[in-house]
Amino acid sequence: MDILLLGTGTSHGVPMIACECAVCKSENPKNNRRRASILVRTGSGNILVDTTPDFREQMLRYRPETIDAVIFTHAHADHIFGLDDVRVYSDRQGHIPCYASPATANSIRRAFEYIFTFPDIGGGVPRIELLEISGPFEVCGLRVVPIPVEHGGSQVLGFRFGGIAYVTDCNGIPDSSMEQLRDLNVLILDALRPKPHPTHFCLSESIEAAGRINARRTLFTHICHRLEHEAVNAELPERMQLAYDGMIVKDE
User: Fold this and answer.
1) Who's near 3: CB < 8 A, 6+ residues apart?
2) Which of 4, 92, 204, 238 has an alpha carbon within 20 to 30 A of 185's alpha carbon?
3) Residue from 49, 53, 66 nearest 188 by CA
4) 76-110: buried (b, 16+ CB within 10 Å) or exposed (e) per residue?
5) Domain-by-domain residue ranges, the chain?
6) CA 84/CA 52 separation, integer angstroms
7) So what's the pLDDT on residue 252?
8) What's the pLDDT score for residue 247?
9) Who contacts 29 (Cβ-Cβ below 8 Å, separation ≥6)?
């Protein structure tokens, strides 16, 4: 198994619309961040985590032959609004299983009512099977462990895949979830910006949480334009770094 980081940016993406800051104008491709998503690649298939508004561009850039399952962290726009473009894959493959918490599944049904109400009208819709999860499950031969975390006033899900955990969009990790993050090879963790934020870890908070989790390696994601890749990496503690789009992480 390995994980391809399809996007490492915040909801605005980087560069951000109408911004002239140094990071948004940077020619370093590691400062160009699409909305946060990963592709978990196993010997039995490809598992997509979140369908961002950049999903089409991400698929054109990395060209996976199949999307065999989709897992959702939560239902904010930057994590679900690319769902319609999944239809290219479902046209070829048939129904694609999509896993989400009950609350996230309900939000997806509301936001994409036409998928479930008018499945064959017009240019077609993604053919998906929306499955509600409340605990560990298996997909593409891989055991997936949902990890509840706090995202402002709501609960969202991170996920553990073997020795790798993906925990985006959070500003708090309950003790019970901390126990599920022990003995990790790689932690991929939310680190929005230098200043505190009401619904995300800022960089110093992410560093503190990563220190408590103590994975062998920590990568920060969901990054805004206030963090310049090379400059921040030069200052981060050992075994911690900013992730970047196109990065590949192995469970070792």
Assistant:
1) 38, 39, 40, 41, 161, 164, 166, 186, 188, 248, 249, 250
2) 204
3) 49
4) bebbbbbbbbbbebbeeeeebbbbbbeebbebbee
5) 2-250
6) 10
7) 83
8) 98
9) 244, 245
Residue type, 251: D
CATH code given to domain 2-250: 3.60.15.10
Distance CA 249, CA 115 (A): 33
What's residue 117's pLDDT? 86
Span 173-205, pLDDT tens digits: 999 999 999 999 999 999 999 999 999 999 999
Tokens of 75: 């239902």
15 cis-preceded (ω within 30 degrees of 0): yes
Helix/strand/coil for 241:
strand
Strands (E), 45-141: 45-49, 69-71, 96-100, 128-132, 137-139
- Alpha-carbon span 92 to 237, nearest angstrom: 45
Rounded to 5°, angle at Cα 203 from 149 and 16: 95
